[in-house]
Each structure stands twice: as structure tokens, then as C-alpha cells.
Amino acid sequence: MHTPARSARANGIDLTYDSFGDANDPTVLLIMGLGTQMIGWDDGFCTQLAGHGRHVVRLDNRDIGKSTRFTQLGVPDIGQVMHAALLGQPIKAPYLLSDMSDDAIGLLDALGIASAHVVGASMGGAIAQTMAIRNPSRLRTLTSIMASSGAPGLPPPTPDAMQALLTPTPLDYAGYLDRYIKTWKILRAGSFPEDEARDPERARAAFDRGLNPAGVARQLVAIIASGSRRSALLEVRTPTLVIHGDADPLVPLAHGQDVAAAVPGARLDVIPRMGHALPISMWPQIVAAIAQHTK
What residues contact 249, with CB distance under 8 A and at least 6 apart? Predict the structure, then answer.
């Protein structure tokens, strides 16, 4: 069962979400990464996970997709923010990952869900970690995928991945499609024909739901300004699974290893050939790991 997208009032804003599976099954909340709409969790991936007896809920984070946009907060100067971060200077952020964590908790409240298995990818993994730190009673388990603790000293992205992250998003469809294909080619870090064949369809879906480059910039500042979670992760007692690819060009494997080392009892699953993406060919392995962890 796949419900149509709908909106819920959460943490004072409107969040768009949908769900797969039986609402009576244990809920798995999926949180996507920087600038990526909830459809970044592919329908097929969600259907496979729901097939393991899970009620799968995915959401558009604030400032992306159909959820509330913070246009009134303006467009941050990313170069200035990154320079300030390098110098250890204070950063004025429109909002922080803690606010996005509170959004997700608010969605659980709106849906009447007392606790859920929380799965986050990339920035979504950082949000999920923040939920476990701030609201541990609301998480049954935590799964952090291709995410960082934000600790200083970890390896940086490759130059190509950094360029893909910081290149402005074209607002015309032809330009957006070209950028989408090139970006995911870099982030997947290899040839994945099934995904490449679906890139135009996926780009069209994201484009039609609406682009918000200024929102992506605000999300990026939230990541930078939120700093390190490493010391707080040492206190997390939520059962934790860390999934990371050994070919990740944006958040190198050392970041996932650091998260797993920080959280007591965390299990690390390293997936060979996986970059900063969830390729179709790897869904069975990833879904099975999440299903086992959320038993």
C-alpha cells in the first residue's frame, strides 16, 4: 500500500510525507540528504522495505520538495560560511540540524507514532543521529547511511564531488537534467546502468515537484554550523547500524567508521563499490540489513 503525498503540521511548519505498507507494522522513518526530496528514497526501495513487514514513512525535509520553504531567511553566502568555519569563527545560520531533527519528531507526533526506527542518508543520517542524541526515547533503532559525525579532521570530499556539491543548480529543465546526470555519475563513483537509465525519469520527477536552490544553500549552512556530534554520540544508547560505501567520494568511508566507533555497540556494514548513492543493484543488501536491524 502506498498512500498519496499529504501534509502534516510539525514543529510549526508543514512537512510533506507519504507511506508504504501497513500502518499497523513498526514504522521506519526515512530521512533524505542535502537538497534531496523524499523521492530520493525510490518507490522500489520503499516497497522492498515495506515487504519485510515495515510501515515506511518518507518526508520532504524543510526547504525542499513540497515542505515549508524559508524564503524569508534569504540566501546565505556559502563561500563566506565555509571561510568562517575554517577559521573557527561563529556562523549565523538560518536554522540548524537540531531544528530539522525537531521537524522529524514533530512529524512522528502528528502521525501519533510514539517511537520509530529512524533511517537517514547523508545529511539525513546527521539528522537521525541528532534525533538519537536529543530524543532517544522516540527511536527504536538508528540506521546512519553514508553520514558523518561532523568531527574535525576527517577526510574531505574528492575535488569532483566537492565541485558537484557547490555547482549552482540550473532552473531550466534541460540544464537541470544535464547537471543531474553529471552529479550522480560522480556520486555513484562507478557505472550503474540501471540507475543511469532511470536518471531522466528521476530528474523529471524532482523538477516537477519544484526546485529550491536557496533552500539547499540554507540546508548546507545548517550542516556546517551544527558542528561535531562526536562527543554526544558517545552517549547514544539507541541500537545503531552504520552503512557506508567504500567508494564514497563525498563522505569518505572514514566518516562512517568514525560514527560506528563513537556510538557504543554500533555495527558497521561496509558495502563494496558503493559511492554516495543507493544504487538499485545494492537495494537487496541494504534493505536486508535495515530489516534485520529493525527486527
Answer: 157, 158, 160, 161, 186, 187, 189, 275, 276
- Look up the CATH number of the domain holding residue 122: 3.40.50.1820
> Can you give the residue range of the structural domain that contains 205?
6-293
Global pTM exceeds 0.90: yes
% pLDDT > 90, the chain: 95
**Count of domains observed in the chain:** 1
Q: Is residue 98 part of a domain?
A: yes
Residue 11 in domain: yes
**pLDDT band at residue 86 using 50, 70 and 90 as cut-offs:** confident
State the cell numbers at 74: 534569504
